[in-house]
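Title: Prediction job returns without error message
Component: structure pipeline
Severity: low
Priority: P3
Assignee: unassigned

Description:
Job completed but the reporter wants confirmation the result is attached to the right record. Sequence as submitted:
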Amino acid sequence: MAYLLIWVAMLAAPEIIWRHLGWLGIAVFDLLLASVVAVIAVYRIHRRGQTIAEAMAASRAGRRDRAEQELRRRNARQERARHEAALPWLKDKRLSPGELPGVAITPATGTSRHHLVGHDVVLDFPGDRQIQVIMQLRRLTRLSLEEAKHLLDAAPVPVLRVPDMPMAQAAKYVLESAGATVSITGPAN
């Protein structure tokens, strides 16, 4: 209610003061309003048990922390985008990883000679966030939910065989960002 009254005073009072007192009245009104706002701010600070200098330092520290968090989020987004750029099927939903030359999903021992060269991305331990790991497994391999769950339960297991190290590191990053422990073995010969 007090804020509503202040808002009405901010809108209506200057016009009334201008008509009766002119510029001097407006200046006095603005100073009075600024001092009321300052007194309210000081009252709130002292209610928290802080001095004004402590409150200013805490405000600066809060702004600095928010800026650092935003920088970390931005860097994480850029790193994720850089890693995912190495895996073209993550961007194009119509493209399957098995269609790319040299990429094999959950490579078995009986795979063709074409798929024997490359780096294996091995899921060592799924970690505590198994649902997120299953989601990322499905995203990487295009497996069904049931197949991804069986793959997760069979850990340690090779998840993906890719032809070059940047693709392997990108797949490892995607799974580790979900909370899994992943290793790269290879090149498989």
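Comment from assignee: result matches the submitted record. Strands lie at 104-105, 118-125, 157-162, 181-188.
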